[in-house]
Amino acid sequence: MSMKKLVTEVTWCKGCGICAAFCPRHVLEIVNDKVVIKDEVSCIKCGQCELRCPDYAIWLQEVDHE
Amino acid sequence: MPSELVKREMRTENLPHIWCPGCSHGSVMRALCQAIENVGLERKNTVIVSGIGCSSRAVGYLNFDTIHTTHGRALAFATGIKLANPDLHVIVLTGDGDISAIGGNHLIHACRRNIGITCIVMNNTIYGMTGGQYSPTTPTGDFGTTAPYGNIDKDFDIPLLAASAGATFAARTTAYGIAQTITVMEKALKHKGFSVIDVASICPSYYGRRNKKGDAVKMLQWQKENSVPVKMAQNMTAEELKGMIVTGIFKDVEEPEYTEEYQKIIEKAGGKR
Amino acid sequence: MSKAVLMQGNEACVKGALKAGMRFFAGYPITPSTEIAEGCAVELPKLGGKFIQMEDELASMAAVIGASVTGTKAMTATSGPGFSLKQENIGYACEAEIPCVIVDVQRSGPSTGLPTSSSQGDVMQTRWGTHGDHPIIVLSPSSVSETYYLTIRAFNLAEKYMTPVILLMDEMIGHLRETVNLYDDVEIINRKQPDEPEGNFEAYKAGENLVPVLPVFGSGHYYNITGLTHNTWGFPTNNRKIAGDLNSRLLNKIEKNRKDIESFEEYLCDDAELLIVAYGGSARVGEESVDMLRKKGIKAGMYRPVTIWPMAETRLAELSERTGKVLVIEHNNGQYVHEVERVAGKKVEVGFIGNISGSYILPTEVVKKAEEMYYAK
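Structure tokens for the assembled complex are given below, as produced in the milestone run.
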């Protein structure tokens, strides 16, 4: 079974805050100009952050579960 | 280790890109990659052409046959590419200054020919690369480093300009409406003939700061609150539409495409393709 | 096999281009080059090629480069005012190493000038018209027949050295009618393509003769083309070392291959005591003047550079040193004469005769000037 997981690449994050501001469940925040996943359990995997991030620093990744 | 989409479509060794924090060019470029995959364009037959300016740096990051041309001339280069080899899908990435100031003549003539090229305008209403000068799409009254007392020029409406010049597909989307941007891009990529999408983009560094529009988040929020679908706009007065962004597909018609018409000339002259 | 055909210079240019394999022409109407565009509009579709009249000269130069990146041999033709506008993208073709041929049928300037009068006022513009240090190859025919064969050579050099090549004509040659012997067996050089399998490609690394192998778009070898200073993968860079290496290679790919590129002709130079230097249409005046001077007992000869840039300097230096007297004929106010002076050196007397009225330089005027130089102490 495949599932999706929120992944970040903080070295690419420029701290614009768009992902955090438009996340419908307030899963994300910006700390010291970098994105942080503060509330992963609330994430509904809508992909808004991935769509909006101008720097490809956050996305939903398929992960395999046994 | 970026997303699978970014790995497939971009030259990740060149990332992160040069654009400023919050600049929407990055998300528009990703939207194009998504649209290309959704439509199923073959990499081998896809050429991406750009001009000069912030937007035009996109080609360096896209893993296709890419050509970064001279200021304003992307459509003229693209016309040569498309006419010489009509089997290629030709996509032009450009900005407001590139396409509507120095390249304005090439824009209207590419529209008039209805040549099979998709032109995506990352319209942030400012010259970003040179530090914030007003462009032909800077709203009247707004400020730029070369409009320190306010811009007295009237601004171009790119989809209306393109449609009246003969483009057979003309649309506007916003950086806020990025999901819609992808679906409209898909339609444009599938369209036979010249298609233009004016993507209202944000430049927090130069336009936003000088015009006190707030940060990237505030600028996108503003787009959300001030966008009107084209169908709804038809029933609104000019006064009501003032300062609003009209989004959607303005024109989508089928007309003879240029390279197909030229093929008929070849047949008339007795030549073979 | 050959056949003799009477044709106009501009027509010979079209026929030569088609023989070379040109299959794309983009242009804009301008006197006195328009017949080239008209000829291409008629002939190209017959061969499955493409002709397009663009919205302006800038766009036609851009479209030519666009066509060339798909592997199509491409040409444009213009005259002074249009040539000025083309400079932007000629520089792009130099930097990005895109082969193409630009024909400039010179008319009298500056600005709109005398549109129907012949001139050679663009000779320095062909060298330095576009900004920045850049390589360029310029060929100048002095007969209709030579126009045919030099047009073919222009394409061959463009493809071999991956560079724009300018065919510098003048109105006199463009509108002249002469017989051309069309030989079937002519060398045609096509663009080198990589042997490597498809995939991302390091297109801008130096190949044979310092020339890169640029895959044509649509071939499955992905790379980036840019007018910005770039690395060997075609990506923009500000790295000083890479920038210096690129700019040196661009200049050296012409400089180090001068012997292969340079060409010139001599007329009665073996025993010459006075050397006339002329190119393009002016060389016809020069040749007539040599004949007239010889009848008068003055041993004159003529050196005619065929590649204007780069100039075949070694032979010119030898001839000027031996004769000690050089007379340059140019249909302008004296441009190339300074190059001749540089090559000839301070010990050689270099005279000049030109014309900027739009009318032709007469052999009688040349003879008079040559006699003055010859008999002076």
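The first helix of chain C runs from residue 9 to 20. Residues 265-375 of chain C form a domain with the Rossmann fold fold (CATH 3.40.50.920). Further analysis is deferred to the final report.
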